[in-house]
Amino acid sequence: MLEINDLHVQYGKSIKAVQGASFSVGEGEIVSLVGQNGAGKSSVLKAVAGLAPITAGTIAFEDSPLASGRIEQRVRRGIAYVPEERGVFAKLTVAENLRLGTTPRRDRAEAERDIEAQLARFPILRKYWGKGASWLSGGEQQQLVIARALVSRPRLLLLDEPTLGLAPIVVDMLFDFIGALPEDGVTVMLVEQNAVRAIEISDRAYVVQPPGRIIGQGGAADLAASPAVVDYLGFEPATRGEE
Ligand code: ATP
């Protein structure tokens, strides 16, 4: 579904965040990028979202290239991006935030049904429906931005650090939720500090080391078989079934 080939991302003249990394994401997969702070993971996701300065390499979505910087092209083709900074519109209500996600859609009745489905999934959003989004806690805001992305009916969802700074119970809820997204036809590319949980719910993971280099990739068993990866991550990846 997504092919990233020999990607280079550079900020300004000297900050080389990604240096020739290649990634692929198959339809229906959850693929995560894990590794230290500053390794370049977010820059990869931003490049796919059209938000990072790409200096070389190609990104193709369903066999056709994504042009650099064309964000609306991504939205039209079914790519949704949830940034690390969350990005709720604090002055708008929860309802207005959610409806914004459906703006590009013409099938209004279906879009309303999708909003209802998200409210069933995230009841807190129904509770605060008419309130300003700034009323929501960090975890609740994260639920809102993920719901807002999903009501655009994306085929590929890019999630940057969705569990950062959240309480363990919310983290558990979000990981369970993300793990089930492929059942709803949503493919996921996930950047996560919580490498243990990310690898657990992923079909494959890429282990990224600064500055933007891949040192290992594959399922939990592949990663566990690489001493360099285990040493870098500081734990031996295991699938749920192996725990
Ligand atoms: P983290 O887990 O801390 O978010 P990351 O692996 O996602 O890290 P990036 O955010 O992609 O890494 O950052 C990679 C490098 O690029 C870092 O050295 C960072 O300081 C730098 N960088 C990221 N964004 C910018 C920017 N807008 N301008 C300048 N440098 C940047």
List keywords for this structure.
binds adenosine-5'-triphosphate, 4-stranded antiparallel β-sheet, 10 strands, 6-stranded mixed β-sheet, single chain, 243 residues, alpha/beta
Short description:
With 243 residues, the chain is α/β, with parallel strands linked by helices. It is 36% helix and 26% strand. It is built from ten helices and ten strands.
Q: What's the total count of β strands?
A: 10
Main beta-sheet annotation = 6 strands, mixed
Strand order of the largest sheet: 6-7-8-3-9-10
Can you count the helices? Answer: 10
**Unreliable residue runs:** none
Name the hetero compounds present.
Answer: adenosine-5'-triphosphate
Beta-strand percentage?
25-35%
Percentage of residues in helical conformation: 25-40%
Overall 3D form: globular
Overview of this protein structure:
- This protein is of the alpha/beta class.
- Helices cover 36% and strands 26% of the residues.
- A 6-stranded mixed sheet has the order 6-7-8-3-9-10, with helices on both faces. Strands 2-1-4-5 form a 4-stranded antiparallel sheet, covered by helices on one side.
- The model has no long low-confidence stretch (mean pLDDT 92).
- Bound molecules: adenosine-5'-triphosphate (ATP).
- Adenosine-5'-triphosphate binds at residues 11, 15, 17, 37-43, 191, 193.
- The site of adenosine-5'-triphosphate has 12 residues, from strand 2 and helix 1.
In terms of topology, how is this protein built?
Blueprint: E1 2-11, E2 15-25, E3 30-35, H1 41-49, E4 54-61, E5 64-65, H2 71-77, E6 79-82, H3 94-100, H4 108-121, H5 123-127, H6 138-150, E7 156-160, H7 168-180, E8 187-191, H8 195-201, E9 204-209, E10 213-218, H9 220-224, H10 227-233
Parallel strand pairs: 3-8, 3-9, 6-7, 7-8
Antiparallel strand pairs: 1-2, 1-4, 4-5, 9-10
Helix pairs in contact: 3-6
The structure holds adenosine-5'-triphosphate (ATP).
